[in-house]
From TrEMBL:
Lineage, broadest ranks: Bacteria, Bacillati, Bacillota, Tissierellia, Tissierellales
Pfam family, one: PrcB_C
Record protein name field: PrcB C-terminal domain-containing protein
The entry's keywords: Membrane, Transmembrane, Transmembrane helix
Top-level taxonomic group: Bacteria
InterPro entries: PrcB_C_dom
Transmembrane segments: 6-25
Chain ranges of the PrcB C-terminal domain: 68-128
Amino acid sequence: MKKIWVLIVIAVIVLGIIFIPKLLFNEGDKTVNFTEVSKNQIPSKLQEVLPSYKTEERALACKVKDEIYIIVTRGEKRTEGYSVAVEKIEKLEKDNETHLIVYAVYEDPKPDEIVAQVITYPYTVVKTDLKELPDKVKLKTRYKE
């Protein structure tokens, strides 16, 4: 019985170390709702902007008719088989500025996969429920396993 109480106390301490700093230092964190926009539904204003950024690996926010869109680009790739998807978007209020952190998942072709040798520019566009453009946008990526 004593071992169970020791384990419970240790679990509470560990959880406290993990969650208390998040609660104390959270300055308005929020998950942003979004929906992926199919390639043929991308607004023409975004289609005009996209060529300027498709060679870069980045995330950017654009406002079109009171709607806020996030574009994530992977840059130039030498073959087909590369993709990018937005996993989640977080909004942080910090020092009177709005920061977005865009979490993206990259997928590369498998080493033994046969793919066309053609230059591609993988990207994705999502429409958010935001009302205003953020001050800063940060891209965090991980590779699909």
